[in-house]
Amino acid sequence: MRACAAAMNEFLQACRAAIGAPHVLTDAHDTAGYLTDQRGRYTGRALAVLRPADSAEVAAVVRLCAQFAVPLVPQGGNTGLVLGSVPDQQGNAVVLSLRRLNRIRAVDALNNTITVESGCVLQHLQEQAAAAGRLFPLSLAAEGSCTIGGNLSTNAGGTGVLRYGNTRELCLGLEVVTAQGEIMSSLKGLRKDNTGYDLRDLFIGAEGTLGVITAAVMKLFPQPRAQVTALAALPHPAQALQLLQLAQAHCGPALTGFELMSDFCLQLVRKHFPEQRLPFDRPHPQYVLLELSDSESEEHARALFEGLIGTALEQGLVDDAVIAASLAQSRALWRLRESISSAQAHEGKNIKHDISVPISRIAEFIAATDVLVQQAAPGCRMVTFGHLGDGNLHYNVSPPEGVADRDFIARQAAINRVVHDSVDRFGGSISAEHGLGALKREEITRYKSPVELQLMRAIKLALDPQQLMNPGKVL
């Protein structure tokens, strides 16, 4: 034990020399914010929190971890929901915070790219793109605190996937520190580079288990001349799917957002944020939030929407609809959608599922799985919302009225099994955009084939033979 303690003291001293003593945090007061997950359900332990300033310092820290066999947990904004960015209870790992790697290295408006360090907050990236007259389309509720490195490591989705794709589709190149402490730099910003294995895609979505992303080249797009939002009320998710098909035919690539929300979702929003109002005189079972990004004009976008909504009303797909008449109204409609998760948190504990199924089967999945969940937990309340346009639902379960949070959460494993087995039957995935982390590490073994798992383990072993990179996550 003394030899081990001496080695760890030597390791920490070497870290202080490499990145500066003020950025090696060991005091409990200083490390607390890095050790608890975003939902406040789990707190791990760590040897230290290390805060390097640039890629070279990250590489130096990783080399020291390899030398002293110290596990490391990369962390960006710590906004994840699957325990992917916090350490376990062993206390022998370090948290590698990347928040100081927050520079915009370059903006190339002609190439429509921005080169950014992994600790850059997503909202700052969006703002820098806008200042250059460009759009960075990745948008999520946590954009004020999540970082682009975390977005890449989890292959985050968000509200613009329908038009622009996941974070993977927005990335053209990476700078990565390998498990051996070497820097792989591929920041060329090329849209075509057919020279062997696509190493970039190995690290995107790997949750820091194969290496540490330190910078990336991300795609930019021309700023739309107009963004127009509408909210449609309808009776059932089946009508929402028909509306999606109609909207894609009517609006083409201008359709950039298509979000499904059940009435109970918005009941929670109205309960906990009473200043927010629905623009309808009565409640409806389901709602769809649509957004158009138009390259011509606001008048053209509004005419597209009016034609779409008129046809949808004639065909009986929607019961009512409103088109935002101003930027303030558009923001108010989006605020309804973005407040659902916060309203859930105010309501109490809930069991979250970030799932995807083929778009064509979403209505069938919801109908069938709602019945199964009610059988498993009678009286539970379904908080179903998400990115219908790309097949991703946040299929969350709140306890029945009057049931204590602790008693309900004790049934989490049984409810997860019902939901995940149903997802599997419908040909879906138990993690659409949040990742696996530690929370779903064991669960995924039920749904991935042995061949897939074997290949994943082989890649992990090849790139991280000491098994030090974010241990206990994904695999």
From TrEMBL:
Coiled coil: none
A molecular function GO annotation: FAD binding
InterPro entries to which the protein is assigned, alphabetical: FAD-bd_oxidored_4_C, FAD-bd_PCMH, FAD-bd_PCMH-like_sf, FAD-bd_PCMH_sub1, FAD-bd_PCMH_sub2, FAD-linked_Oxase-like_C, FAD-oxidored/transferase_4, Oxid_FAD_bind_N
Key words of the record: FAD, Flavoprotein
Any GO BP: respiratory electron transport chain
Keyword Flavoprotein: yes
Domain spans labelled FAD-binding PCMH-type: 42-223
The keyword Flavoprotein belongs to this UniProt entry's keyword annotation: yes
PROSITE patterns: FAD_PCMH
Cofactor: FAD
Protein origin, superkingdom: Bacteria
Family: Belongs to the FAD-binding oxidoreductase/transferase type 4 family.
Protein name, per record: FAD/FMN-containing dehydrogenase protein
Species for this entry: Herbaspirillum seropedicae (strain SmR1)
